[in-house]
Design brief:
alpha+beta, 5-stranded antiparallel sheet
Length: 318
Amino acid sequence: MAVFTEVSDKAAKALLKRVPLGDFVSLRGIEGGIENTNYFLTTSQGEYVLTLFERLRADQLPFYLYLMKHLAKAGVPVPEPQADGKTGDILLQVEGKPAAIVGKLPGKSQLAPQAAHCQSLGEVLAKMHQAALDYPRQQPNLRGLPWWNETVPVVLPYLDTATAELLRSELAYQNHVAQSSAYTALPRGPVHADLFRDNAMFEGETLTGIFDFYFAGVDTWLFDIAVVVNDWCIDLATGAIDKPRADALLAAYQVVRPLQACERELLNAMLRAGALRFWISRLWDFYLPREASLLKPHDPTHFERVLRERLATPYQLR
């Protein structure tokens, strides 16, 4: 959530003439993240988040924005995009960039989650997967296996021999898994694909909402679960899985939607895939950064540690 494009108060006021959310009060850039420009937009009616999309094309954005509307309508706690008062469009334009405004969720991110938080998240994650089943738009996970295959050769020259060998080896393994009959059988649909601790809000142990759907796409539900476990249910210093948290999350998920046999078989493979995906993207952002105000690239060695942990200590599903 860095600031690549500066938005003036004047531009924000002009936007509010099209999107009827009250009178302009303030605009403040949001620090953190590395993909889009984000601001907190405060009006006389409340607080909102204004996002300017820096990499995604205008033709790709309806998938994300209408998915959020679809989930909100189904009762999943997500921020709903706000529409132009005249045209009804939820895809807007600000400073020449495609943009959107969504409501700011109540609560705060839980950056030190306990088992109770993971239990709440597991239940909502399963409900989100099911609610998205009848979503009619289709778009692949743009940071899926094809992107990994394209990006790894770009980052390999920056790595030492041992690190490069681990990256090549795991990518080869994931290509092998993707050709298996078990992988083909995995249930799939629209997934969040980036549901980290800072992309959900809590009041106490109650989950108030999930946001930042701009890496969403059609992929396996198991991959989405793996991404969540690899962030919410680990010791951040070592990357090791915290079994009580992982057990709580997966048990709550399965109350809503029990895992199929093929999912149980490939859970550890997808935990490795989730670690690989974010290791690759962090390597890319670290060695090939874009200039932006407030931009702080994430440390890529974190997900290298997570991957090594998944290789050394497979998770035992209860």
